[in-house]
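pipeline/complex-builder :: batch 7 item 3
reading input block
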Amino acid sequence: MAYSQKVMDHFTNPRNVGEIEDASGVGEVGNMKCGDIMKIFLKIEDDIITDVKFNTFGCGAAIATSSMATELIKGKHVEEAMKLSNQAVVEALDGLPPVKMHCSVLAEEAVRSAIQDYYNKIGREMPEEYKLKCEGCCEDCSKK
Amino acid sequence: MAYSQKVMDHFTNPRNVGEIEDASGVGEVGNMKCGDIMKIFLKIEDDIITDVKFNTFGCGAAIATSSMATELIKGKHVEEAMKLSNQAVVEALDGLPPVKMHCSVLAEEAVRSAIQDYYNKIGREMPEEYKLKCEGCCEDCSKK
Amino acid sequence: MRVYADNAATTQVSRSALEAMLPCFTEYYGNPSSMHQSGQDAARLLINARETMAKYLGASPNEITFTSGGSEADNQAIISAALRGARKGKKHIISTKFEHHAVLHAVEKLGKEGFEITLLDVHEDGIVRLPKLEAAIRPDTALVTVMYANNEIGTIQPISEIGALCREKGVIFHTDAVQAAGHLEIDVTKQNIDMLTLSAHKFHGPKGIGLLYCRKAIPLSTLIEGGAQERGKRAGTENIPAIVGMAAAFREACENMAVNMPRVRALRDRLIDGVLARIPEVILNGDREKRLPGNANFSVTGIEGESLLLLLDNAGICASSGSACTSGSLDPSHVLLAIGLPHETAHGSLRLTLSEYNTQEEIDYIIEALPPIVEKLRMMSPVWKKK
Amino acid sequence: MRVYADNAATTQVSRSALEAMLPCFTEYYGNPSSMHQSGQDAARLLINARETMAKYLGASPNEITFTSGGSEADNQAIISAALRGARKGKKHIISTKFEHHAVLHAVEKLGKEGFEITLLDVHEDGIVRLPKLEAAIRPDTALVTVMYANNEIGTIQPISEIGALCREKGVIFHTDAVQAAGHLEIDVTKQNIDMLTLSAHKFHGPKGIGLLYCRKAIPLSTLIEGGAQERGKRAGTENIPAIVGMAAAFREACENMAVNMPRVRALRDRLIDGVLARIPEVILNGDREKRLPGNANFSVTGIEGESLLLLLDNAGICASSGSACTSGSLDPSHVLLAIGLPHETAHGSLRLTLSEYNTQEEIDYIIEALPPIVEKLRMMSPVWKKK
Ligand SMILES: Cc1ncc(COP(=O)(O)O)c(C=O)c1O
Ligand SMILES: Cc1ncc(COP(=O)(O)O)c(C=O)c1O
């Protein structure tokens, strides 16, 4: 299990760490049982993401994917940001070890979750295909 | 499995190797299946063993015990020689590895077998306790 | 500065062990089963090594079976005891919740094959309670297997008392002493241990070699069939260099235990005190006193173990989170869950394991380096309540 | 003069293998499961070694499982194939009469557990016949296991043909290539080998390390349970120094095979010719052509093997009689009985096994030393008809 240089760079010098007080949208995904929690804060003006911050509890890959995902959506239109795929994050990081692929999925979900929150706030409907579905990854529901 | 110096001495420089043309008694024990054959030739005058020779097919211990056994009975009265125990051979050789103890038994038997032959020839009865019994060690009879 | 503080995962080979091994590769390289000089030289090395191991364990040489390591020995011990039990109609096995996977998985496999398994609780302090064990022993109990000291949190189990109890009840007692050997006193006779596992690479011996002590009265089953090596109990050409290296390392560790271990314990205490004093909301896992001289295991609230390890590694510090074997997996350590840690805390564990090779300077370096790293991770953690 | 002519029992570690190993003891000593630099350095060595082994076997790296040697790999292969067979209702295993005990005993154990075992005849020349194998394969055959080359008489089996036949019939084919690896070409893909065992100490690698190749399509069962090393197929901290040493030795052996083996073969032929010319009533066991480059195995009428070995040893020559594993036992070699030798001849066997480390001078020394020793023993043999 070896991380790429890009991953190590984004892990050791994560971009956009922090919180946004008056965020336009906030998304939080993951849970303590799985050992990863990502929280993304968006500042949106005219549907453009003007600022983005994250807080992450998790492994090196979780932090690096959070960092990269925020970089990839900064300055983008929300509709474009919504389309950010985990694959795009992985590619931008020059790959992830197989056991860490779920972190990129988490990053994708965190972005969508924050946009969803924004849409909820402004009363816009999220396109069906981008709505978050429970993946049943955590014990909370999957083992019941 | 390490041999004592005495064993190695009697193996590399075996005493009394050979045959006696007009032997007073000849004994052969062991068989090819077990991988050991010992043949002992006795020259007996007035019940005294004046000469003894052996031929042995077998491992180092078989040759060394043959050599030692012949040394131990040379010059002895047949009744004394008859009492030669495998234990005495082992002790005289400063011990044998456990897996090789059977060789000393073979040497004891070879001596008795030769004396038996001598007794047969002169029409004397071997004391019951010294008569050779089949030990069932070889496949020839034991596995039938 | 580079600091290796992961000695519970593996250790470097000591100079004297390596020196003992070297001639075995190119000079005494014979097969001990061979009759000739070269083989007999190797056979003598094998005998001497077996005697050394037996001596420092309080055992007889013919009670020692060399194996390829701790895992193999654990497997063989458990399977042997189970087969013996099954022959007598005893199909109950007692172990603990925080054994190494080499024990747990072997026991679980037997569980699938019709054995009944009781896994004892290890409480918050990581120590098995004797009355609980006594209550668990049944007429059909075939085996009690309790580790000597835990590989993650370092807690030491009451082995002598367990040994006495099992002997009294007529139950086979096996202990996985992989983490204890070379660090704590062992005397299988005095401690009434029936079977014991150790592995050389945890006490500055080579990897790929260990042993199973098995008391004479107890029949051992064969896991690896083939040649008649190890009295027919373990086939395969004997790994003489490794066996010789293990014996040299074990002798060295046992002879110097009285000097080394207090020193290591002092380093560990300095580390524990330093970390607890400098970093808020950190707890020491496992009993503070009844623990391996070199083991410090912390839960650091609000951060995840892997990211902590990576930043420590960037600072030159080799540490671990959970056991080395399971890293890469997503589950938090079964050991930490067994002592009742909630998932969030179990995910944030840090194990620093010292040996006599560590220095006070290194410990002070760790104490300096750790706080800003923890702070950095906590600052980006959504779980940590920022001040 | 000292001549080591027992290379089928074990070999000395090559200089390049030892040099590759040394840094692993004291520098790259980390546990490959560890996240930190020290662990990742070890992990990289492990990956490289696996790639090397795979490359020279014609396999993929993830088809390679490192084990503690040939015996363990043989056991794991056979048990895996048997368990797979049992799940499909196939409980018939085919092997040969002259396999190594690591295979024979593992197969026999399955025989006691309800499997039906067919042991193929190996004929006077020590070679399995394809039509006999074909006739033995049944719809419920779970496994064919035939060694690549025999450890005592060195005969080489028609592995490619057996592989093709088994593939066609849909039967798993395992080969114990312990004696072949490093000495004969192996390509598991071209040769349709499903599982293959090798052991490093037979090709100037270290003892205590081997591997099991297992084709991707075939599920491997675990013999040693515990940590998730080797993709969960073999628990235990990886023996990095030995694995690295094996890879270095295997690379060296394979790269130099085309140069070394003809040389070794020439030495062997010189030895065989010399012995047959100088000593009456000696026969070469096993096919003269289809044999390992370094193997000469004689039956010397009228004398017993051990005493011959001891006298050769006194003359500085390390040889063997039967396989090293079984010496000390009273039974004549099962291999020699399998090729139809009567007991008397089987007891008098002499195996001389050469490697690229042997010289022509050494061979000539053996040819000089042997005749008087044979003569001496024959002179005291009651079985030898003296002239
Ligand atoms: C043909 C064959 N198979 C298996 C083995 C066993 O290998 P190891 O000693 O590495 O367990 C050997 C050698 O001992 C052998 O010659
Ligand atoms: C307690 C314990 N048991 C067993 C093992 C397994 O030992 P090995 O890696 O030598 O197989 C280990 C270490 O990995 C251990 O810490």
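note: Chain C touches chain D through 76 residues (CB under 8 Å).
queue -> next item
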